[in-house]
Design goal:
Length: about 300
């Protein structure tokens, strides 16, 4: 069903040209999943669950268990919503794919998380240029059961609605925050660094690379630092930012960002791989294998 008629156009965003889909919310057409679709889910589910213990934040896997997610079949959103609504008041809604930014922010601000209903094809197990059901469901949904993280996601959505009214530069700053936390964030725990970003946990290669490789930087999270740091869309990240707790994210997001955007507009953005004197450095990356250009 991927590449179907619901794709409306390609739009140039800070992530490059991406397909933007109709904004309508649909009922997850669960009966239309093929045996191949369920098999793709099972393969990806098993593969990630083999490598994630000891790498992903413990609550990530615990919450998948609470949801009853398994390799047996693609989960039904209605089953997940029964668990989710009681826990944090969030609701999963089925969509055709990436939404226009403002529509996406408005859903988050109302505690609705859009999940792409279709899953990648068997020949796309390792790479897909747009989010599919595996990325959205396996990667993003588990932490919505965490009350603090759930509040952060809503605060982010409210911030997005505001930033959209301020202008494109504010949106760029805010998108970097999402990128380096919700998609590619690491968290410091007593057991060591762990993954909580959905872009990492839904990728086998990056789940290993982000923690084991000597190449990337691993730096302490700082809101304004993150907001003015460019990132990679076509390779593993050059830099991962590490939070101490989800409360740190929520606290950083509480103030009005308007004066921050004004301040950041006056200074240049940082290349994705730079380490600054002011950074809290967990690891200074060797930079091995980095491409020189291509930060966005
Ligand atoms: Fe995502």
């Amino acid at each position: 069903m991927q590449g179907n008629a619901q794709r409306v156009e390609h739009q140039l965003t800070d992530k490059g040209y991406v397909p933007v889909y109709t904004t309508r919310v649909i009922a997850q057409p669960w009966e239309t999943y093929t045996a191949d679709d369920h098999r793709t889910w099972a393969t990806l589910f098993r593969r990630q669950r083999e490598i994630l213990p000891g790498r992903a934040a413990k609550e990530f896997i615990d919450n998948q268990e609470r949801f009853g997610m398994s390799a047996d079949a693609i989960p039904k959103f209605s089953d997940l919503n029964r668990v989710l609504s009681v826990a944090t008041g969030w609701e999963l809604i089925a969509v055709e794919g990436l939404l226009p930014e403002l529509t996406f922010f408005e859903h988050l601000a109302n505690r609705r998380f859009p999940v792409t209903w279709w899953i990648r094809k068997p020949e796309q197990l390792d790479y897909l240029s747009e989010p599919d059901l595996f990325h959205d469901l396996f990667g993003h949904v588990p932490l919505l059961l965490n009350p603090v993280f759930a509040d952060y996601m809503q605060a982010y959505g409210c911030g997005g609605v505001k930033a959209a009214a301020i202008g494109p530069e504010a949106l760029v700053n805010l998108t970097r925050l999402y990128w380096y936390t919700v998609e590619f964030g690491l968290i410091n725990t007593p057991e060591g660094l762990r993954i909580y970003g959905a872009g990492i946990v839904s990728s086998k290669g990056e789940s290993i690379y982000c923690l084991d490789s000597a190449a990337p930087n691993r730096l302490g999270f700082d809101l304004e630092r993150v907001m003015c740091t460019r990132y990679r869309i076509d390779t593993y990240q050059k830099t991962y930012f590490v939070i101490d707790s989800y409360a740190q994210l929520m606290d950083a997001t509480r103030p009005d960002f308007t004066p921050i955007y004004a301040r950041l507009a006056a200074q240049p953005s940082h290349p994705a791989g730079n380490v600054l004197d002011s950074d809290q450095v967990y690891q200074r990356g060797s930079g091995e294998g980095w491409l020189n250009d291509g930060d966005v």
